[in-house]
Specification:
The chain is an alpha+beta fold. It has helices at residues 2-17, 32-45, 50-67, 70-87, 90-103, 110-126, 130-146, 150-166, 170-184, 192-203, 207-218, 228-243, 247-264, 267-283, 287-304, 307-324, 327-393, 397-453, 455-469, 475-506, 519-535, 555-571, 603-607, 629-640, and strands at 514-518, 540-544, 550-554, 578-586, 589-596, 644-650, 654-662.
Length: 666
């Protein structure tokens, strides 16, 4: 069946090649019809011979650009970009599509521009930027809906569903894909739908349903469809069997996935299947085979600077060497894993700023095009006005007066409309510029915290280890230094925990998962973490929350808020002081109050305490250190759960921090 299919594709391509026009020198004629024929040839090879498809798409784009053939450039850019997507070259997709849209006339070729917006969404989403990707997918869907292109609208509905899946909004994602599957059924154009249903059910832990949908893909008997779907389906089937400890089946599916990606030339997604094999061998204690595969992934990721794969493979290698008893290498790859994890978080922030700058440039270009169009409209209106004036002079002065008045009125409306559009674009650009400035300030502040507050405890630990290795410390000195090191690393642990939560929330990746629960029980469990800290200062912590007090919010977020507020109260309360956590309920809301008998807060400090773009920190009563990041997290998390946050204080007497949350599910 495969040979017959390939033969049919070649016959179709040969037929199209027969109508291409050539010059007397045997070169392709630079003609618009040749561009469109080359695109048709690309379509015949797209799903069966990736190299040939890429060649003809590139040739079509080259000729279209030489001719300045606007529509041909847009179509060829989309065709070549789709090949880069198959290869996993996502940055190249972004550069091509963004450049083509910047140069396009926004009033023409709406279908072609919709496809390029879809490509931009793919370039963002494939690199993990699902929020901006979602915006482009929605824009593309709306454009396809406006021109009645049902297939294009459906494809972008699929992309929207994938974005919800990646941001862990499984309910919305499942609703979209079940609806598409019931309406469309399984066809070459909808082959990605059961793939995504398999991924969603896998994340929800429903392995039987996930396996059913993924096997629909690998058993599909169609011809022209995206073979990347097979690679994804077989990889995820390997993950399912690995999770169920069915190791032979897992290895089989991972191997099938690798073979498919090798045929597609997709080195990026092949690495995850290789790492799947390494993890399978690790779990079956075949450590030498596990090491070979994990090193292959790691070295390839180093060669292509694939940061996520460097992170996953270094973690796998750490676990392998730890089981082998090779603690030197285990420590090496654990350090690399932590370094890559930190780099990925920093890279997320830097890339988001870069994307904002690119979108700012794009909006600026759109504004320039609007200004240019307004000038052309005004020039055209003036020409028409002069022409009509000359025509009507011979008939009647009255007719001239009527025409002039009509034109003036029309020009006035055009100017008002253009000015309104210009003002709206200016306001949009100013808002983006302010957001970009804030993001830069946040990034710089975050890096300064990392540079300053992490260096000190690590330097102390390095010095301690060095002195200990040199036998320069007595037992008495060691006993004196260890508590200080423990204190420093408790602070560092709290800092890292808050930083990770804060950076995740700032990158729009923190999903709120509300539920109804009793606050007193939650705080009682959390108090265990703080009891020793309070005991060191002879402080009492009283849990006076009403037994029946409930809130409807994200439990983990509320837990972190309570820990930060009580930790701050301990920090700023002198020895033998008192800390009380109480509750009240009114009009469907529960209010939690953390009261302390500490040093209090001045009016000036209280006025700037909740500025989320600056981190405020003051040493505690025993010079405890902090960054101010914990309070910023508290404000952010309470707002995300539809609550309010405020504080009162009297200097020298104590402080009260309040937050209010819904008592029940709406």
């Amino acid at each position: 069946m495969g040979l017959q299919h390939a033969s049919a594709q070649h016959a179709e391509a040969d037929s199209l090649m027969g109508i291409i026009q050539y010059t007397t020198d045997g070169e392709l004629t630079p003609d618009t019809s040749n561009v469109l024929i080359l695109i048709e040839i690309f379509d015949t090879y797209r799903f069966v011979e990736q190299d040939s498809a890429f060649k003809y798409a590139s040739l079509a784009l080259e000729i279209a650009e030489r001719l300045n053939f606007a529509r041909g450039i847009l179509i060829a850019t989309y065709s070549k970009g789709s090949m880069y997507f198959t290869q996993g070259n996502y940055q190249e997709i972004y550069d091509m599509a963004f450049t083509a849209l910047q140069q396009a006339d926004t009033s023409k070729y709406r279908a072609e521009q919709a496809r390029l917006n879809q490509l931009l969404g793919i370039s963002y989403a494939s690199q993990g930027y699902y929020e901006p990707g979602l915006r482009y997918f929605m824009r593309a869907k709306n454009m396809f809906d406006a021109i009645g292109n049902e297939m294009g609208a459906m494809q972008n509905l699929v992309n929207i569903g994938v974005s919800y899946l990646k941001t862990q909004n499984y309910t919305k994602a499942l609703d979209i894909f079940v609806r598409i599957d019931s309406l469309r059924g399984l066809k070459p154009a909808t082959i990605s739908v059961p793939v995504n249903l398999g991924f969603i059910y896998y994340e929800m832990g429903e392995y039987q349903k996930a396996e059913y949908h993924l096997k629909r893909v690998i058993n599909f008997e169609g011809e022209k469809f995206d073979r990347r779907s097979l690679g994804l389906a077989t990889f995820k089937l390997g993950e399912i069997h690995l999770a169920q400890k069915q190791y032979d089946q897992a290895l089989n599916f991972f191997s099938q996935s690798i073979e498919i990606y090798e045929k597609l030339g997709n080195k990026s997604e092949k690495l995850q299947a290789l790492n799947g094999i390494a993890r399978t061998y690790l779990l079956t204690r075949k450590l030498k085979q596990a090491e070979d595969y994990a090193l292959q992934v790691y070295n390839t990721a180093l060669e292509h600077n694939a940061l996520p794969d460097k992170q996953t493979s270094s973690e796998t290698l750490h676990r392998i060497y730890r089981q082998q008893g090779d603690f030197q290498n285990a420590y090496k790859y654990l350090s690399l894993y932590k370094s890559y994890s930190d780099s990925m978080q920093n890279d997320e922030i830097s890339k988001k700023i870069g994307r904002l700058e690119a979108e700012f440039d794009f909006q600026k270009k759109e504004l320039e095009l609007i200004n240019e169009q307004r000038q052309q409209n005004a020039e055209h209106a003036r020409t028409v006005s002069e022409h009509r004036t000359y025509l009507f002079i011979t008939f009647s002065l009255l007719a001239i007066a009527v025409v002039v008045a009509s034109l003036l009125y029309r020009n006035s409306k055009l100017r008002k409309k253009a000015n309104r559009l210009l003002q709206e674009k200016n306001e949009e650009i100013e808002a983006q510029a302010k957001e970009l400035h804030k993001m830069n300030e946040l990034k710089n502040h975050l890096f300064s915290i990392l540079a300053h507050d992490l260096r000190s405890p690590l330097s102390s630990l390095h010095g301690f280890i060095t002195l200990n290795e040199m036998d320069s410390l007595t037992q008495k000195e060691i006993q004196k230094l260890v508590p200080e090191l423990v204190h420093r690393f408790q602070y560092t642990s709290n800092l890292l925990n808050n930083l990770l939560h804060w950076s995740k929330s700032q990158l729009e990746g923190y999903t709120v998962e509300p539920a109804e629960f009793h606050v007193k029980k939650l705080f009682g469990e959390s108090t265990e973490v703080l009891n020793q800290k309070a005991a060191n200062k002879d402080l009492s912590i009283q849990n006076n929350i009403d037994e029946e007090a409930t809130v409807y919010a994200d439990k983990n977020m509320v837990d972190l808020v309570l820990l930060n507020l009580v930790s701050n109260a301990i920090k700023f309360t002198p020895k033998e002081g008192r800390i009380e956590v109480s509750s009240s309920q009114d009009k469907g809301y529960t209010t939690i109050c953390v009261t302390d008998t500490g040093v209090g807060i001045t009016e000036d400090q209280l006025a700037t305490l909740f500025d989320t773009h600056n981190f405020h920190s003051t040493p505690g009563t025993e010079n405890e250190m902090g960054t101010g990041l914990g309070l910023t997290l508290c404000v952010d998390f309470i707002k995300r759960n539809k609550g309010k946050f405020w504080a009162t204080s009297e200097e020298g007497i104590g402080s009260q921090f309040y937050f209010t949350l819904p008592s029940k599910k709406p």
